[in-house]
């Protein structure tokens, strides 16, 4: 498992192979970094 993001209380985003999980809703944060990461990762597969 690869840790993608951490905060004070622990891991908030991780991935294993082609599965990504988050402990937050990136679409509600106003921060686009996670979306950019996701799109860049998916573009590698196309």
TrEMBL record:
Any one GO molecular-function label of the UniProt entry: glutaminase activity
- What biological-process GO terms show up in the record? pyridoxal phosphate biosynthetic process
In terms of domain of life, where is this protein from?
A: Archaea
**InterPro entries reported in the protein's UniProt record:** Class_I_gatase-like (IPR029062), PdxT/SNO (IPR002161)
Q: What is this protein called?
A: Pyridoxal 5'-phosphate synthase glutaminase subunit PdxT
> What is the species of this protein?
Candidatus Marsarchaeota G1 archaeon OSP_B
